[in-house]
């Protein structure tokens, strides 16, 4: 692929598979984080100086237990706030599974960017303070979750947002028991992640969530993470997904009674 360089190869380990029986979204971010570090090093840029401020990810095809994959990376936006793009492929079939556009602060990159040929970022509404916010997480950043420069790793953020998912889903009846009994899951197809600050080991973290959009089989959550001591917003995530039939591996319409409960929690009606 012209302009792209291979930055990661790996496989899906059993412990990296979630309740939806596919590769956990947080582990995609773990691999993209490693791919970015390698790409920046190879580009002559100090990756320790780079801070991710935005990441837009589109999930296109599933990876499941034992699948092998590779990541290719390119510069798509040069300058003082450079953006790189990752494309993750199933290494067996060649199928494009996931793309991620990652924008940095703290570094500058020059050179001829590659034209981005993937999904564009769409503007999504962000719920305000008057939305129906559901508490979804209360915990502390552990030392083992830090990245190479001492901040909470990208996967550490996503693991926390994923936990918050279960609380907001339970708020409108899509409880763990309901999902297990009916062989259902939530399959994410888009992340829009924005960082306002960084979390470090020892920081107390809170996450609260709201429903930003509800469709027939789809739902979009908005999660915001705060420093529990200062109240400052650290990061926000817009997450779009569908209810997935785990046996058919296809989207399934959300039950009408659950959709009614979800509509009552909508940030904007």
Walk me through the topology.
Blueprint lengths: L4 E7 L13 H18 L8 E9 L8 E10 L5 E8 L5 E10 L28 E7 L13 H18 L4 H6 L2 E12 L8 E11 L3 E10 L5 E13 L4 E2 L4 H9 L5
Antiparallel strand pairs: 1-3, 2-5, 2-7, 3-4, 4-5, 6-8, 7-10, 8-9, 9-10, 10-11
Describe what you observe in this structure.
- The protein folds into 2 domains: 1-108, Thiol Ester Dehydrase, Chain A, CATH 3.10.129.10; 133-269, Roll (Thiol Ester Dehydrase, Chain A), CATH 3.10.129.10.
- Strands 1, 2, 3, 4, 5, 6, 7, 8, 9, 10 and 11 form an 11-stranded antiparallel sheet that branches.
- The chain has 269 residues and is of the alpha+beta class.
- 19% of the residues lie in helices and 37% in strands.
Brief description of this entry?
This protein has four helices and eleven strands, in the order βαβββββααβββββα. The chain is of the alpha+beta class and 269 residues long. The model has no long low-confidence stretch (mean pLDDT 96).
Q: Remind me, CATH topology of the largest domain? A: Thiol Ester Dehydrase, Chain A
CATH class category label of the largest domain: Alpha Beta
> Which outline best applies?
globular
Secondary structure: number of strands: 11
Quickly give the CATH architecture of the largest domain: Roll
Order of helices and strands: EHEEEEEHHEEEEEH
Structural class determined from secondary elements: alpha+beta
Distance between the termini: 44 Å
User: What portion of residues belong to β-strands?
Assistant: 35-45%
Mean model confidence by pLDDT: 96
Rg result? 18 Å
Per CATH, the superfamily of the largest domain is Hotdog Thioesterase
Helix % is 10-25%
Count the domains: 2
The major beta sheet can be summarized as: 11 strands, antiparallel
What's the helix count? 4
- Poorly predicted parts: none
């Amino acid at each position: 692929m012209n302009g792209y360089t291979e930055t990661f190869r790996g496989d899906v380990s059993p412990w990296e598979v979630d309740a939806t029986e596919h590769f956990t979204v947080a582990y995609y971010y773990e691999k993209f984080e490693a791919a970015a570090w390698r790409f920046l090093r190879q580009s002559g840029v100090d990756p320790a100086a780079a801070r991710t401020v935005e990441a837009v990810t589109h999930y296109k095809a599933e990876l499941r237990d034992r699948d092998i994959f590779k990541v290719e990376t390119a510069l798509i936006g040069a300058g003082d706030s450079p953006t790189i793009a990752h494309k993750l492929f199933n290494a067996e079939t060649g199928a494009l599974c996931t793309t991620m556009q990652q924008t940095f602060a703290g570094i500058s990159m020059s050179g001829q960017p590659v034209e981005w040929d993937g999904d564009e970022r769409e503007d999504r509404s962000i719920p305000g303070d008057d939305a129906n916010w559901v508490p979804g997480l209360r915990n502390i950043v552990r030392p083992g979750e830090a990245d190479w420069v001492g901040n909470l790793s990208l996967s550490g953020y996503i693991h926390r947002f994923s936990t918050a998912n279960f609380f907001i889903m339970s708020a409108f009846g899509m409880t763990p028991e309901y999902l297990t009994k009916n062989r259902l899951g939530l399959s994410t197809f888009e992340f829009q992640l924005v960082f306002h600050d960084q979390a470090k080991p020892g920081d107390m973290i809170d996450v609260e969530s709201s429903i930003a959009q509800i469709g027939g089989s789809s739902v979009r959550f908005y999660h915001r993470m705060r420093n529990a001591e200062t109240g400052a917003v650290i990061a926000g995530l817009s997450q779009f997904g569908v209810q997935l039939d785990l046996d058919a591996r296809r989207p399934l319409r959300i039950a009408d009674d659950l959709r009614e409960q979800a509509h009552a929690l909508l940030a904007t009606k």
